[in-house]
Amino acid sequence: MERENRISTKPADRGMIKELCRYLDRFWRPEGEVPEAPLSEAPHILETPCELESCEEERRRYALCGKPPKKDRLIPAVGAGIGLFLSSLKSRLNKAEETCSERLLRLIRERGRDEVEVYQKAGVDRKLFSKMRRKDYRPKAKTLYAFIIVLQLTLDDAVDLLASAGYAFSSASRLDLAVKFCVEKGIGDLDEVNNALYELGMETLP
Questions:
Q1: Full-model pTM
Q2: What is the DSSP string of 115-179?
Q3: For residue 110, is pLDDT > 80?
């Protein structure tokens, strides 16, 4: 399908496009560019009543007194909520891994949506969707982006669906960030999304 044929005749939402532009300005990082994190956002260790000695001080003390450092010294916690994170991670790893096809079909069922209606709104024909039903088929990232928008997936579900096919959102890709923006805003109209992408000179979906 030609690019122009995927664009709706409905006028583009100028407010949405301006907001998307601000989002891209904030988060887009060309390949190889690593921004410095502000001091307030830099990773840090929570303060504890007992601070650890530096390696140099520890070696100096050991050399003077001839005794190894005590083994029962306090170790500061590494970040708030790490226990919950590890528990969640373990739970995910314990679950049987779904293929991309299985995950997509489950997400459609869970939302009570009709498969035909969903793939048609995503701009996919029956032949391609039949291929996508195969467990060994790996769809293109842009195709998954269209389903993510139409199904109005949460960011977690979108990330998991992409990961099941070996993809991930990248801050070096303006298209990736545009899709992520739409997910965060809960935008489910693919025509509206494509109008915005076209206005900004990006590829349309799927």
A1: 0.69
A2: HHHHHHHTT--HHHHHHHTSTT----HHHHHHHHHHTT--HHHHHHHHHHTT----TT-HHHHHH
A3: yes
The mean pLDDT value for 132-158 works out to: 97
Please give the helix or strand (H or E) that residue 35 lies within, else none: none
> Is a pLDDT exceeding 70 seen at residue 167?
yes
H or E segment and range at residue 38: none
Give the residue, 125 or 82, on which the prediction is more confident: 125
Reference 141, options 170, 117, 118, 121; nearest CA is: 170
The single-letter DSSP state of residue 81 is T
How far is Cα 139 from Cα 128, in angstroms, rounded to an integer?
Answer: 9
Q: Could you give the CA distance from residue 133 to residue 102 in angstroms, rounded to a whole number?
A: 8
> How far apart are alpha carbons 56 and 203 in whole angstroms?
55
Supply 155's token pair.
Answer: 């960011």
Q: Which two tokens stand for residue 137?
A: 């088929």
